[in-house]
Design brief:
The structure holds two protein chains of two kinds. By secondary structure, chain A is an alpha+beta fold. Chain A is about 35% helix and about 20% strand. Chain A has a seven-stranded antiparallel beta sheet, with helices on both faces. Chain B folds into four domains: about 90 residues, Alpha-helical ferredoxin (Fumarate Reductase Iron-sulfur Protein, Chain B, domain 2, Orthogonal Bundle); about 60 residues, no CATH class; about 130 residues, Rossmann fold; about 110 residues, 3-Layer(aba) Sandwich (Rossmann fold), CATH 3.40.50. In chain B, strand 8, helix 24 and strand 9 form a beta-alpha-beta unit. The longest helix of chain B is centred in the last third of the chain and has 18 residues. Classes of the chains: A alpha+beta, B alpha/beta. Bound molecules: flavin-adenine dinucleotide and iron/sulfur cluster (2 copies). The site of one iron/sulfur cluster has 14 residues of chain B, from helix 2, helix 3 and helix 5.
């Protein structure tokens, strides 16, 4: 990176907040995605929206690309830098600015860690539901940029459903404020929604205004064990058909259960084909009723055993074990390549068996887990990136899974975003016209392709 | 064990899938919020060295020295990354590269790692000298010199932390073989440690007493070699392996039901002789067997069903908080057992200490090499301790014991630091001679 730019950044932020040494840059060369790696030119840590804007202007003047980064837990390569790019890392913008219990809102800087939002809301008897598996690490800015889901998506939706407003730095450095604390607002296009899920390609979110809910009074957590994967999938369909909307319906297959138990040692049954982690929350009477009915439905669909968490602590243990699923799968082989396909829920059972059959056909090891209530599955290939022949087979299997997903009316990514990892399949899913529409939007906002170039599309 | 990152089995480096689940548990990342000071960042740097993308630089060496080696990341990591091995290999690489070399540092490393901690008799001799020095008026004289800023600050720090040497060493307090009064249930070997032996030999006595009270025949060789953990953590794997062989020769694992360690840091190293000696055909099997016999004292007591004392060592009830030493909690995964033992004690009320497994900043010689970060961690620990309302802090590692004790003294707090085995031993003693106060 050019001396003059580095100096200008140091003049702006001070040398403590501008990193250029090789030992400082290498650790910002990747995110949570396997196999993508590059070395940025510099990493900066702004504290305010104005500083972000000033950094953007400086990079623009020097003509270098900008990559926004939260905590780098993304699973599609979104915050993997392009070589020599300026990485703007927002983790130091980590202040909760206000909680408004009368309007049920919370205003926070973009670098606030996700878990802190709900912890803060809880102090006021309120609730911020989105809870991605990475909630103790990821930033709200990253969540907004990926429109992240979580374990409670089935009942409470995803990040988008909670974003009421935001402050954004545009690719040319201008600062705009979008949305407001009104429950209803149809003054023109809903511009904030354009930035939710934009993966850092349209603007840098520096502040968010989030919607909160009253905290549910009661919660019940259940764990059902199945000897056949299809039975678990059928149980999910039947629960939904019975007009119960639990907050969580999470699924782990045999391989995943083994890895999670190996790590968490909480006594999960490792000799079954699938487990379902189910949770219902709300009014105590309704929770009791739903829990009883869910137990019954699971039993009639062949559950071997249904266990009810005795207390909050046990429930938490089960949920955190589920959150470790993806990382725990990495215990088995050196490289973990994870998919994020989502299908209409009626097609779940078919998709699940297709994944298993595809893995067998290509002689590959796959652990599958996911947000079954949302139709969102994470088949994870356990492989070794240094074995070229095996990686070839992984690629073939991925192709097959994508084909099948699309033929069932599904999507290549339910919550992790396109980034670098899903780029090859985007056009196939969208079709030419919608693909071009997206590019038109990108070009209108970022004509010089400065923000996160090469992500989503080339 | 591999001597360098380049020779290391690559899958150990590859095991890290950079998910970041370890980040919130790392004290140095918490302090800087920079990736290079996080487990994930450090592993990325090690991988860059292994891949030949980066030389061993000053910055790399500094970062590995800034790492506490607390292994909180290893507990947090769902992917099963062996951070301890990566860290020790990186430190060995750094030593070999000579990037940290300076004549003075070389001299002290030579004296400590190659001379003192390789020769147990000499170490005790040094201990005796230090004891004499502490007992003479000389100590307060040098303290005055420090106050007048005549001696360098580092020396002052070192001295403040140097442990008060025990009046008698373990061999003067424990017979080579001691048998319980009633039935012998188990035959165990007791490791007396280095720092433990010099500064806390009474705790070794307490450990022996507790074992005797639970039907164990206790074998304690009077002169024991260092376990090698100091060498291993400081980039000297060859010396560490030599010490491991001596240890196994002195206490053949087949002869005992268990080999007992009562210092978290030693125990954490002692149960990995298998990896350390895996390439030594004469010792590989013995070392694996050794690992399978090694027990932390609390772990062993709970395993054999520790007898609850029926007498209380303290007249009134006592509120106790428990601080987990990193190498016991993260290195050995012994977390519940010390608490279970404390709960056996009549009159003890156990309260939870916030962030009980967050490093106190002692971390071997970290308090000397990284005084600022060490002090910040100590402050954090003391704050939680004061908030807990406990009158006694129980902890079971000599390093933590010294660090927290000196911190409490500095702020004039009346909270006492006592090890769980000491509390147990006092209660057992009270059973037989209730009139003698402990
Ligand atoms: C163990 C594990 C479990 C996970 N579980 C889930 C899950 O259950 N559900 C789920 O949806 N995801 C999950 N993820 C994926 C990931 O955590 C989310 O995508 C998360 O939102 C990323 O946040 P981050 O702060 O780490 O962002 P980064 O990884 O740093 O960035 C992600 C993307 O957002 C952009 N970006 C970041 N901050 C901003 C900003 N302020 N303004 C504009 N663009 C920005 C980046 O440029 C990049 O494109 C998981 C990841 C891991 C490692
Ligand atoms: S050390 Fe473990 S927890 Fe940390 S980033 Fe690597 S795999 Fe994830
Ligand atoms: S050993 Fe401790 S300080 Fe070092 S990386 Fe792990 S958690 Fe951080």
């Amino acid at each position: 990176m050019r001396e003059s730019l580095v100096q200008a950044l140091i003049d702006l932020l001070g040398s403590e907040r501008v990193l250029t040494a090789i030992e400082d840059l290498i650790p910002y060369g990747f995110d949570g995605t396997a196999t993508f790696k590059a070395t940025p030119g510099a990493v900066v840590f702004p504290n305010t929206t104005e500083e972000v804007s000033a950094c953007v202007r400086l990079a623009n003047d020097a003509g270098i690309p900008i990559v926004t980064r939260g905590s780098g837990t993304g699973l599609s390569g979104g915050s993997v830098p392009t070589d020599h790019a300026l990485v703007i890392c927002l983790v130091q913008m980590d202040r909760i600015l206000s909680v408004d219990p009368r309007n049920l809102t919370l205003r926070a800087q973009a670098g606030v860690i996700t878990a802190k939002l709900d912890e803060t809301a809880a102090e006021h008897g309120l609730f911020y539901p989105p809870d991605p598996g990475s909630l103790r690490i990821s930033t709200i800015g990253g969540n907004v940029a990926e429109n992240s889901g979580g374990l409670r998506g089935l009942k409470y939706g995803v990040t988008r459903n909670y974003v009421m407003g935001m402050e954004v730095v545009l690719p040319d450095g201008r600062i705009v404020s979008l949305g407001n604390a009104c429950v209803k607002d149809v003054a023109g296009y809903s511009m904030k929604d354009l930035f939710v899920g934009s993966e850092g390609t349209l603007g840098i979110v520096t502040e968010v205004l989030l919607k909160l809910l009253p905290r549910p009074l009661a919660r019940r957590t259940l764990l059902a064990t199945f000897d056949r994967m299809e039975d678990a999938a059928e149980t999910v369909s039947s629960i939904i058909a019975a007009r119960i909307i639990p907050c969580t319906l999470e699924f782990l297959d045999r391989i995943t259960i083994g890895c999670v138990e190996d790590y968490a040692k909480i006594g999960l049954p490792t000799d079954c084909e699938a487990i379902l982690l189910m949770e219902t929350d709300g009014h105590p009477a309704a929770v009791e009723d739903e829990a009883t009915r869910m137990v019954e439905i699971a039993r009639t669909h062949g559950a071997r055993e249904v266990q009810i968490a005795q207390d909050e602590q046990e429930a938490l243990k089960l949920a955190s074990a589920r959150r470790s699923a993806f990382s725990a799968l990495a215990r088995v082989r050196p490289t973990t390549i994870l998919e994020d396909i989502t299908v209409p829920r009626s097609a779940l059972a078919e998709m699940v068996s297709f994944i298993a059959a595809t893995a067998t056909r290509h002689g590959l090891m796959v652990g599958t887990f996911g947000h079954m209530g949302d139709g969102n599955l994470h088949p994870t290939f356990l492989t070794d990136e240094r074995d070229e022949e095996e990686m070839q087979r992984v690629h073939l299997a991925l192709e097959a899974i994508v084909e099948k997903t699309l033929s069932l009316g599904g999507t290549i990514t339910g919550e992790h975003g396109v980034g670098l990892a899903k780029k090859p399949w985007l056009k196939q899913q969208l079709g030419d016209a919608s693909y071009e529409l997206m590019r038109t939007v990108k070009h209108a906002l970022d004509p010089h392709n400065r923000l996160n170039p090469g992500k989503i599309f080339d | 064990m591999a001597g360098s990152l380049k020779q290391l089995d690559y899958s150990i480096l590859q095991q890290c899938m950079h998910c970041g689940m370890c980040l919130p548990t790392c004290p140095t990342f918490d302090a800087t919020k920079r990736e290079r000071s996080s487990p994930r960042g450090r592993i990325a740097l090690m991988r860059a060295v292994a891949d030949g993308e980066m030389e061993i630089t000053r910055g790399f060496a500094d970062e590995m020295s800034y790492c506490l080696g607390c292994l909180a990341c290893q507990t947090a990591c769902p992917a099963g990354v062996d951070y301890a091995q990566l860290f020790e290999t990186a430190r060995a690489d750094i030593e070999k590269s000579g990037i940290n070399a300076s004549p003075l540092r070389g001299f002290w490393r030579f004296i400590t790692l190659r001379v003192l901690f390789m020769r147990p008799r000499l170490l005790r001799m040094a201990g005796r000298l230090l004891r004499l020095y502490q007992g003479s008026g000389l100590e307060s004289f040098t303290k005055r010199l420090h106050q007048m800023r005549i001696l360098p600050a580092e020396l002052g720090r070192l001295e403040a932390l140097s442990p008060r040497i025990s009046d008698r060493f373990s061999n003067e307090m424990i017979d080579p073989v001691e048998r319980p009064g009633n039935d012998i249930r188990f035959k165990v070997a007791l490791l007396t440690g280095c720092v433990q032996d010099l500064a806390f030999s009474e705790i070794n006595r307490d450990t022996a007493d507790v074992l005797l009270a639970n039907g164990c025949e206790v074998h304690t060789p009077p002169v024991q070699s260092c376990c090698g953990s100091l060498h291993s953590h400081n980039g000297e794997p060859i010396l560490a392996a030599e010490l491991a062989r001596r240890m196994i020769d002195q206490l053949p694992p087949d002869d005992y039901d268990a080999i007992i360690s009562n210092a978290g840091g030693c125990g954490s190293h002692l149960r990995h002789y298998g990896t350390l000696l895996e390439d030594d055909p004469a010792y590989a099997d013995k070392a694996r067997n050794w690992d399978s016999k090694l027990r932390d004292i609390h772990e062993w007591l709970v395993e054999i069903g520790c007898r609850a004392p029926f007498s209380s060592a303290n007249p009134d009830s006592m509120t106790v908080a428990y601080h987990e030493s990193c190498h016991l909690a993260h290195g050995q995964k012994v977390t519940q057992q010390p608490r279970q033992l404390l709960q056996l004690l009549p009159g003890v009320k156990l309260v939870e200490l916030k962030e009980s497994s967050w490093c106190c900043g002692s971390a071997g010689i970290y308090s000397i090499t990284q005084p600022e970060q060490s002090a910040a961690l100590l402050d954090r620990k003391l704050k939680h301790l004061q908030d807990s309302g406990a009158a006694v802090l129980a902890t079971s590692n000599p390093g933590c014991h010294l660090q927290i004790e000196s911190g409490l003294k500095a702020i004039g707090s009346p909270i006492e630091v006592i090890q769980p085995v000491t509390l147990l031993a006092r209660s057992y003693r009270q059973e037989t001679s209730p009139s003698i106060s402990p």
